[in-house]
Amino acid sequence: MSSIFVCGSILSILQSILFWEKEPGISVILFVISFLVGLIYLMYKHKKIENKKAFILAIPIILLSATYFVYHNILFQTVNVLAIVLLTIIMCIYATRLYVKIQEFLVKVIALLAGSFESISDVIDSLKNKFKKKEDVENEKTEKIKQGLKSFVYAVPVILIVLILLMSADSVFANIFANIFDEFKNIFMAENFVMFCIRMCIIIIFFFIFSGFFVNILKKDTMFNSESEEKIVEIHIEKMTINMILTILNIFYFIFSIIQFTSLFSNINTNDFDYATYARQGFFQLMIISFINIVMIMLAKVNKGNTSSYTKGMSILILLFTMVILLSAFFRMNLYEKAYGYTYLRLFVYYILVAEFILILPIGLWILDRKIDILKWTIGIVTIMYMILNFSNIESTIAKRNVDRYFENQEENEIDLEYLFHHTGTDAIGQMKRLLNAKDETVVKRVKEYLLQEKEDLQDTETSWQETNLSEIKAKEELINIQ
């Protein structure tokens, strides 16, 4: 337990140094790397590693933490906390076992989260035992400590006199020690002392959280490492029910596919048909339907005793219709964006649709009983697509596409400046500057006011080294000449 306590102590103090009253920046990647080093070291030390390949997930974890340093996207700064935690949990699950069934995966995720808090009691018990063992030794040292304190009390007056004389003799020496005394004085001022106590409490809380997490992974008989035989949840739905649902869905999707090819994909322009409005009616619904289809296919596959050729055939057919649905949703989104511009949500839909489309191939192979770990493929594809989304600089992309669309036809196309002002930040400054060349003086005036305000906000903000962010540094350079 000593190594666990050491790692827990170092990480809890480090998080306070990096994040206390600080905005996220380079601090995040420094902490994540430190945490991963500590975690992997403890797993090696306690011989808990069964699958070294799982540590490849450390790459996306570190890259996601690097986005806090490279970009300044508030949405991703929030969501990536959850993504980093989830990927770390998945890495731990796969590192400690060679194979994970779909049915037990969610159970293990919950066991790692809930068990970490449950293991805090083990941490407390271990600390109590350590202190009890030290009690006997401490009793022997009590007399020596008392003697040492007496010696210190006698020595203090002599030390203070010498220190005062030295400070009066040299101004540089005096300034150094004056600053040290001021720091101690500030700590014990009423307001600062309260904040100091709160900070220490947070450090202690994080110590128990980190230590509990490590104990849950490394010790036997914890919630995560229960030696009892795990009962895998077996899904059992009547074969007739599954086949009936798949058959009826395929009939509906067949009719839907015919309509898509005749009315949407053909895209025949008529005076009384607005394709942008038509497209708006369904891309979100179709995306949800595609999710439902994938879930239904997986349920049919893992359903106990349901491996008939008919079920496989219906599953493959529904997978093909899912491709049509995804294409329809993609096509509708494209038409709608051309008419109304680009937003966060609309670009997110593209990434989700592409991820689902890529997943179709491994799911198809899985249905046909090819040797493929569908859970690993799903985690891998979703992780890669999420990484691409993070490093696509989405705020700059949104601004660029909207500005490009506006400049294609400034007389007819409008640009939603309110959306750009409130939903993009320093990542999009370079693209926003392009609007200073617009023909519409009102657009130029509003954009200039926005850029000047951004410049003022950046100049007024004092940042520590922990908050270093490349996007803000680049934005300051971009705005130097804006007057």
Topology:
Layout: H1 2-19, H2 26-45, H3 58-70, H4 74-95, H5 102-118, H6 120-169, H7 171-187, H8 190-218, H9 239-264, H10 275-280, H11 283-302, H12 309-340, H13 344-367, H14 374-391, H15 394-408, H16 417-423, H17 429-433, H18 441-460, H19 470-478
Helix pairs in contact: 1-2, 1-8, 2-3, 3-4, 3-14, 4-5, 5-8, 6-7, 6-8, 9-12, 11-12, 11-13, 12-13, 13-14
Give me some keywords for this one.
single chain, 483 residues, mainly alpha, 19 helices, flat
Please summarize what this structure is.
It is built from 19 helices and no strands. The protein is an all-alpha fold.
Output the structural class.
mainly alpha
Distance between the termini: 61 Å
**Mean of pLDDT:** 82
Low-pLDDT runs of 5+ residues are 268-273
**Main sheet properties:** none
Please provide the ordered H/E string of secondary-structure elements.
HHHHHHHHHHHHHHHHHHH
Beta-strand percentage?
under 5%
What is the quaternary state of this protein?
single chain
The share of residues in helices is: over 70%
Q: What Rg is obtained from the alpha carbons, in whole angstroms?
A: 30 Å
Overall form: flat
Provide a count of the helices: 19
How many strands in all? 0
